[in-house]
Amino acid sequence: MNKRDFPKIHFYDQDFVDIYDKTWSWVQNFWLTSEAQEETDYFVYPEENQPLIIDQTESTFASFFLVYSNRNFPAHQNLDYLYKRQEENGAIRRQYNLADNSPIVPKDNPEALALPLFAWAEFNLYHKSANKRRIKEVMPVLQKYMTWIETSFKKENGLYAVPVQAGGMFNSPRDKTFYPIDFNSAMAVSALYMAALGDILNEKDLNFQYKRLYFSLKTRINTLMWNKDTGFYHDLNEKGEQLPHKTAAGFWPLLAEIPNEDKAELLISHLTNPKTFGTDHPFPTLSADEKKFSQDGEGYRGSVFPSFNFMIIKGLEKYQRYDLAREAAIRHLYYILDAMFPHGDDKAVKGDLWEAYLPGKEGVAKLSGKNTFPRKRYLHFAGLSAIALMIENVIGLSISLPRKTVDWIIPNLEIMGIENLSLKRNMITILSNKSVRGWEIQMESEKLYYFTINILGQKKKTLPIPSGKCSMLIDKL
Question: Measured in Å, how far apart are the chain's first and last C-alpha atoms?
Answer without folding.
Answer: 40
